From TrEMBL:
InterPro entries: DUF72, UPF0759_sf. Gene3D superfamilies: Protein of unknown function UPF0759. The lineage of its organism: Bacteria, Pseudomonadati, Pseudomonadota, Gammaproteobacteria, Alteromonadales. Pfam families: DUF72. This is DUF72 domain-containing protein. It comes from the Bacteria. Coiled coil: none annotated. It comes from Shewanella metallivivens.
């Protein structure tokens, strides 16, 4: 999440590990909380996280894998209630609740997803990440998925893994990323007000500029339409993710300067202190 030992000298300075979130929130404006995918925090822990950030900070939390992968969204009412009860202190500062589905969640399961979206707390922003290949084939399955998400005003999470798969698997971090990240086409569609892009970067920083060119065009278009996209910048081991986010954001800032879209209407994970808009990186 927001805690990474490698960033001690670049992000946290003299701050202790228990102060990292508070320090992070002083510099950045949003982060992906991946920890909830593996375990739901206690109400006490959720309150500690809430107390560490300001009112303008935005988390994005994954729903537990018990709900998304083990139950496959079925018979999950009690688990959903327990999760959101534990997360109650963080409701007002969570921008997107992520529903990451396994590759085994196929087109035949779409009615289950539709039913599930009626059972989660309403009035919140949700994002769905699918990995079944049929949802990327531009056929009936993908059209049905997109229509469902539009109908329920749920954001489709877009994975851009082109950069990391362009890297040769010569390091442990890249090999691990190749094994765990989905190799799927990039379909830039906004099904709701907060399109979510997860950009998995190449370990060589300069190689990412080529892959980022289309986002330099698409993100300003969404902003001009009144949408507020979330862009998460990863690297295979995340050690250099903050710097990559800064570098890519500078390119985006230059592009936005030539549009009518206000710069403060985009959430990129990891805000650069000298930038006039918010940006950041994913952990």
């Amino acid at each position: 999440m927001w805690s990474h030992n490698h960033w001690q000298h670049t992000v946290y300075g003299h701050h202790t590990s228990s102060q990292r979130l508070a320090r992070y929130a002083e510099i950045f404006n949003t982060v992906e909380g991946n920890t909830t995918f593996y375990a739901t925090p206690s109400l006490q822990q959720a309150q500690i996280w809430r107390n560490a950030v300001n009112d303008n900070f935005r988390f994005t939390f994954k729903l537990p894998k018990y709900i998304t992968h083990e139950l496959m969204l079925q018979d999950a009412n009690i688990a959903v209630q327990q999760f959101f009860s534990a997360m109650a202190p963080l409701i007002d500062v969570t921008g997107i609740w992520k529903i990451q589905l396994p590759a085994s969640f196929s087109p035949q399961h779409l009615p289950i997803l539709a039913q599930f979206l009626t059972q989660v707390p309403q009035g919140l922003n949700y994002g769905v990440e699918v990995r079944h290949q049929a949802f990327f084939a531009k056929g009936d399955a993908e059209r049905d998925l997109n229509r469902l998400l539009i109908d329920y005003q749920c954001n489709r999470i877009i994975m851009d893994t082109r950069p990391v798969f362009a890297a040769p698997p010569t390091t442990e971090a890249v090999i691990d990323a190749h094994q765990k990240k989905p190799k799927v086409p990039v379909h830039a569609i906004a099904t709701a007000q907060h399109p979510v892009v997860r950009f998995i970067g190449h370990p060589q920083a300069e190689a990412n500029v080529h892959f980022f060119q289309n986002w330099l065009k698409q993100l300003p278009l969404w902003i001009a339409q009144g949408k507020q996209p979330y862009l998460f910048i990863h690297t295979p081991d995340n050690q250099d993710a903050p710097q990559l986010a800064v570098d890519l954001y500078r390119l985006l800032q230059q592009q936005l300067m030539h549009t009518t879209a206000p710069l403060n209407d985009i959430n990129l994970l990891a805000q650069h202190q000298d930038a006039t808009a918010q940006m950041g990186f994913d952990l």
